[in-house]
Amino acid sequence: MTLVFTNGVFDLLHVGHVRLLQFARAQGDRLVVAINSDASARRLKGPHRPIVPAHERAELLRALRCVDDVHIFADDTPELLIQRLRPHVLVKGPACRGTDIPGAAIVESIGGRVVIPDWPVEHSSTWTIDRIRQGADTLPRPMLQTLTIDGVNVMPSPRFSLTWVSAEAGPRPVLYDRGRRVTDAWSVHLDHEQPPDPWGRSA
What we know:
It is built from six helices and eleven strands. It starts with a strand and ends in a 10-residue tail after the last strand. The longest helix has 11 residues, at about 15-25. Helix 5 links the parallel strand 4 (about 90) and strand 5 (about 115). About 25% of the residues are buried. The chain is of the alpha/beta class.
């Protein structure tokens, strides 16, 4: 039996969470999800988070068909839980690409693998919460329409994905081709277009 593990705060469950969990479940036979306790989430996200308490977040996740078990962990990272469960696969969201993933070394040391889906980051609880707090319109965030790589336009597709890396001047975009980094942090220019207003209002 292949045990798959993923973790996160999972505050204000959204479609990005569901897609990641479905993807994770497809990597093996059993999916275990670990969520940050309320105190751990506050240390990670700030004093006003989480919005939804841990026991309710766990209940929501357990209700999903793709989730087999849920654990709440109190530490800043789930490394102790990973050490105990010894999963065969560790799945993290696309925002973690290019970062140091807690528990990855443990999984790889026992012959397991770390899997990150190759799609852009388009959903975030933090984005949603910020829009609500700012009284912003409930329209979707502007979606990435084209990438300009060294002067050549590239349309996003299942082949290409985008993530962000730290740089001295702030986070910068990096493009991946089927999971392989193909540009450095300074050669990608993003063009965004506001999606149509479903209520027909002008910008």
